[in-house]
Structure formats: C-alpha cells, structure tokens
Prior knowledge:
This protein has helices at residues 15-33, 36-46, 55-60, 68-89, 91-112, 124-137, 160-178, 183-186, 192-208, 213-217, and strands at 2-6, 142-149, 152-159. The chain is globular. Helix 5 packs antiparallel against helix 9, helix 6 crosses helix 9 (192-208) and helix 7 (160-178) crosses helix 9. A three-stranded antiparallel β-sheet has the order 1-2-3. It is built from ten helices and three strands, in the order βααααααββαααα. It has a single domain (2-180, 190-217), classed as Rhomboid-like (Rhomboid-like fold). By secondary structure, the protein is mainly alpha-helical.
Amino acid sequence: xxxLRDTQPSYSKPVVTVLLIVVNILVFLFExxxxxxxxxxxxxTYGLVPDHxxxxxxxxxxxxxxxxxxxxxxMWFLWIFGDNIEDILGSAKYLMFYLLCGAAAAMAQFFxxxxxxxxxxxxxxxxxxxxxxxxxxxxxxxxVALVTIIxxxxxxxxxxxxxxxxxFFIQFFNGxxxxxxxxxxxxxxxxxxxxxxxxxxxxxxxxxLVPRQRFTKRQDVHW
Length: 223
C-alpha cells in the first residue's frame, strides 16, 4: 500500500517543504556526480557514523541518500504530509520542527547501536516526525493509496490514522528485531529505530509547538 495523495487541504504555500525537497535533490545530484571513491569519502564525512559521532553529522546526514529510490520515496512522503504540517506551524517553526525530528531520529538509532561503523543517511527520520505530527493533527484525513491485488493495481481511500499507525508498527517491530544484529555484518540496511524515534518526536513536538492562530480558529471538516 503506497500513498499517492491526501485529502487534507493546505491553505498556504509549502515554501519550506519545497525548499527541503530541492536541497535534498541537489545534494544527491552532487553525490552521483562524484567518482566511487569520492562518494564513499563524502558519505563517510557527512553521514552519521555512530562509532565516531559528531553533532555536525546529525544535521548533514539528513540531506544525504543512498540511491534514487531512497531519495524519491522520502521526497514523495515529505510532499504528501509536509505541506499540511507547515501550514499549521508556519514556515520558520516547521523548519525547526523538521530538523529536531531528524535529530531525534538520528539519536534513537545512535543509542541503539553506538558502535556501528556504517554511515547513517537519509531524511526518513525527519519525515517520520512529520508523519507523527500528521497523525495527531489530521487523523481523519483520507489517504488515497495504490494497492496491488495479485497482478492488478487499484487505488483505495484509507483513514490517515490507520495508514500511519500501521506504518509505525512495521517500523517498530522491525526495529526491535534488528537490536543486537550488527549492521556492519549485514552491509547496512534500513534504520528502523530512527523512523520510530522520529515519529515519536513528531508526536511530542507538535503538542509543544503552538500552531498558528489562524489554524486554531479554523474548523477542519476532516477531524
């Protein structure tokens, strides 16, 4: 089940969401322009390697990706869910929210496996935070999703709360199952606990950050 769009309208231009997507794409285009040796050096320098942790890498790792599918999947989810969270928080507060969720996601994965020498990269932890906030603020929005039935494709509308909770539990159980396994021996993989940490951070932060006044006055028919 892959989300195509949501039914929750946005009442302002998603300036920061678009900017984040553009920056991620530009950084990835720079990555793929490098030769293999330089690419590895770039990822090792700016990705978050738990074995030699730096706070700078917590930030820079959010803008690196391991491949085209990694990038496009993340940017698609950010486009679907990010505009509504930016709409209610305002651009400046939304950017702070996004970065804090990404940092929380990185720290969750770091504490789970602090001795790992595999660079952690990707925006999915920060985007998981956006999804957590969406669950809190727009649980009754509908998500139009693409589903596969044997060899046929169709679309269905599902409640946002159902899709997001289902997604979270997949990340949680995969993350718990990965504890104790060496990511080095597996050659890397998905940082499920980063997704869990980002999602929970998004839920917490959306309660702490006060929405814009015009949002609090707006009656959302999807609630």
